[in-house]
Each structure stands twice: as structure tokens, then as C-alpha cells.
Amino acid sequence: MGLTLDVDPLTLALAPPPDETEEQREQRLEEEEHARRVSEEIDEQIRKEGAALRKQKKPIKVLLLGQSESGKSTTLKNFQLAYAAQAWAKERLAWKAVIQLNLIRHVVIILDLLTQEMSKVTSEESSSDSDEPSRPSRQATSSPPLRLTEKHRLLKLRLAPLRSVREDLQARLGASDWPAPRASGEKSKMQDFFVRSNATWKSSLRSNSAKWPSDHNRRKGQDESNETGEVLASCAEDIKALWADDVIQEMLKRRRLRLDLQPGFFLHERDVDRIATRDYSPADEDVVRSRLRTLGVQEHRIHFETGSAAGTDWCLYDVGGSRTQRAAWFPYFDDCSAIIFLAPISCFDEKLAEDRRVNRLEDSYQLWKMICSNKLLSKAQIILFLNKCDLLDKKLKSGVRVRDCVPSYGDRKNDLQTVAQYFAQHFKEIAKQHVVTARPFRVHLTSVVDTQATALTLGIVGENILRTQLRDADLL
Ligand SMILES: Nc1nc2c(ncn2[C@@H]2O[C@H](COP(=O)(O)OP(=O)(O)OP(=O)(O)O)[C@@H](O)[C@H]2O)c(=O)[nH]1
Ligand SMILES: [Mg+2]
After folding, report:
1. How far away, in angstroms, is 382 Cα from ligand 2 center?
2. Which residues are annotated as a binding site for GTP?
3. What is the model's pTM?
4. Structural domains present in the chain
5. Which residue intervals are annotated with compositional bias (Basic and acidic residues) in the record (predicted)?
């Protein structure tokens, strides 16, 4: 027969042992008293923070700074995803056109290169009197000619409609090409694009938005969106065939073009299968991987729905990071609470798109120095994200050695942890040398395309910013 208890098991567990001595009893009571006091202190702290949060009327201002393509806008998306899920769910759909455009632009880059290769072969054929097979192109005189066949001609022909889809998408987004002029004035091969106003393109692309100016426009927008999906779906097999083709890969290799490492790259089979469909709906992962250059300073107000900062309003400023954009940052320094500075450490062997003479890591160091030594920012907290650690890891594993670009690195181990620590130390020293106010050096190793890991980092960062802000405002 089972045993029945008419006493609460918890009470029973907490009850003093029946053979308790006087001395043990005194110690137990003392411990219980201590635990009670700690618990009351915690309650009081929670009560104070709650009251402070309610008093905190002013939004917490955070600036996202760093060079272009450092991950500022991607970090902003992570904030929205983690803390304003409802607002994010509405916004996600607007990114569909950006992702489709990212995918198509890489196809068009390949088609353009293919056209160049084909025209070389044709011009060499026509300049030759004989009926021999085409000769190697001038660029590839040392390597055998690319074996371009009827298959490539057909792929080029069948994928041609994507050019006009690209134009349509750019028009719908209000996007313009970003030519990324080089120091010499020459245009970069890898054109990027941007939109002028953050609010307009999003509202115009949310097909379920109530803000559509008229039924006619909404139908027009939906028709265009459906048409893009139709064309993409009909091209999906050819897109995959293009990317999987050995000759195309050889062509890219000869030109030292690693498209798969470019931002907004969606030509892998697993991506094309999802995105080039009639009813594609963006996943969070696609949105954080997409690329849309920021122009100027864009303000994003976020009402935190969850976490310890729930109920507070934050104003996040996402800025354009290329050199010509940086002068626009300064007016925002005055009353900002915190800066999240992003330095993409995978770029230690890359040059700035806008000035090919400047190493990207060196540019980040210079910017960091400017931020640390700026007197207007003396009251702001500064948090450093050493970003793109996933790409750094890939790069190191592919055999790229840090010491070849950074001689001072010496014979240290060429692995992610050692390299990241080395770069972190360098940023720390710069902060120490250019100190204007005593503040802790807060650094995080990040890959902000990893939304789960970034949510954890933002949890820590957000809590620190909030606490310091409340303390500084004498609310705690
Ligand atoms: N693999 C990887 N990609 C990243 C990471 N952070 C950002 N990216 C990608 O890099 C590209 C550029 O990121 P953005 O956030 O747009 O860069 P940004 O700093 O806002 O650039 P600007 O607007 O030009 O100043 C996007 O396609 C991102 O998906 C990262 O940690 N890892
Ligand atoms: Mg940006």
C-alpha cells in the first residue's frame, strides 16, 4: 500500500532535523536570517529598477559605428529580431525584394563576365583565318582557354530576363547603384546598391501594409512582386546550373573573384531552392545575410518588448560607414548613451572599396582611435564588436596567414582564438593610449549573421547600457 502524506513536501524538506543541537539551531536561524535579508535586498533592487525604468522617459540613444560592411545594419536587425519581434515580423517581408535583388545581381555579374569571355573568343576567332578551334584569350595566354560551349550560350540567353527583373526591383526599392569609386577614380567591379530613405522602401514593399496609397498601387506592387517570383522560379534550375558549372568556377578563379564570400551571396543550391520560388517568404537568416548599403544616418526607434529592458524605448542610429559618409556621424555624438563599434576582423588582408591603398583593419584602428579620443563621447559607453569571426575562421582554415599581412603577428598560432585575441589586444592598447575618460574596455567576438549567438551578446550589452544609463541619471 502506498504511503500518503498530509504535510507539504517542501515544508517537510525544510524542517529542522529532529536531533538538532542548540548550536546547530542557532547557526540555522542565522543562515535563514541572512537568506531573508539577501532576498529582501534583491526584491528592493528589482523594485528600484522597475521604478527607474518607468521614470526613464528619454529613449536610450545608441550609435552603431564602423567602416562600411562592418555589420552595423546587421546588428540593428538583430536588435529588432531579439527585442521587438512583433515589429520585426511586419518588417521581414519588406526584405524579400532586397534578397531577390542580391541573388539576381550576382547572377548578372557572372553573365557580364561570361559575355566578356565569349566576345574575346569571337574576336579572336574572327581575326583568325583558319577554321581551328578558338585560341586562348589574351588574359589567359598562360592558361588553356576556357571551354565555353553551347551550354554557356544557352544559359546566358535563358537567364537574360533577370536583367530586366533587376531593373524593376531597383526601381521598386528606389535603389541606386553605388559605384564605390577607387582612389584612382576607376569604378569597382563589384557594384553595391543603396536606398535613399529607410522608411519609404519598407512601407512600399510590405504588401500587407495599410499604408499603400491606393488599391491600384497595391495591386500593381503585388503584380510586380508575383512577376519577380515567376521569373526567378522559371530561372531557378539555370541559376543553379550556372553556379555549379566548372568552367564558370574556373573563370571566377582566374579573375580571383570569390563571389561566395561577398555580402548578399545567395547562389548556393540550398538558397536558390528556397528563394527562387513563386511563394518565397524570407527567413530571419536570409534577412541578416542580405546586403543593402546605408546612406547617411538612419534613426530606428525600438520599443523593447522583452528582456530586462522591456518597456523602454531605444533610439538606434545606423550610419553609412564609407569614408565620404563619416562626417555625418558627428552631430549625433553629443547626447548619445552608448556606441557599438564594429570592426570586421576577417578583413585583415583586404583593402577599402573606396580607397584601394588602405588596408581595412588599419582603417578600423584609425576609426577606433578617433572614437576613443573624441571628447564629445566622454560620457558615452563604448562597446567593441570584433565582428565577422565566422569569416575569419574560414579564411584562416583556408590557409591565409595573418603574418603575411600583419608582420608584427610573428609566429603566433594562425587560429581564430589566437588571432582574435591579438587584434583585441591591439584595440585595447589604442583605447588606453587615447583615453579621455576612465571607462571599461568592453569587447565581444561576434558573427552577427548568427542570430542566436548575437541575441545572447545583445542581452549582455543591452543590460550593461541600461544599468549604466540609469545609474548616471541617478535613477538607481
Ligand atoms: N559572414 C558574415 N557576414 C556578415 C557578418 N556581419 C555582417 N555580415 C554581412 O556583411 C554584409 C554587410 O553588412 P552590413 O550590416 O550591411 O554592413 P554595414 O556596416 O551596415 O555597411 P554600410 O551600410 O555600408 O556602412 C551583409 O551582407 C551582412 O550579412 C558576419 O559576422 N559574418
Ligand atoms: Mg548599413
Report:
1. 19
2. 387-390
3. 0.81
4. 58-84+304-472 (3.40.50.300), 94-289 (no CATH)
5. 24-39, 213-223
